[in-house]
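Risk register update: the risk of archive-format incompatibility is retired. Evidence:
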Amino acid sequence: MILPGCKFGENYQCHFIKGSELADYRLGKLHETLDRLKLESERVQLVQLSITEYDKLPQILNEFVQRLEEIGLNPFKGL
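Archived output:
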């Protein structure tokens, strides 16, 4: 799963106030939980983009799909 969000930092201008920062914090907790369950936390990624970087999204999605193909199927899918 890929979560696109606004870039945070010095010139943070997210219309969700601090939504991307909160998502980043929660994603860290999710990664910890997935790792404890021996699931690949790489299956979930937060991507920060500004509205002017919309043209980068196809490349980001293609790279994410390639990474998922390298990881392979979820070992618990057949259970």
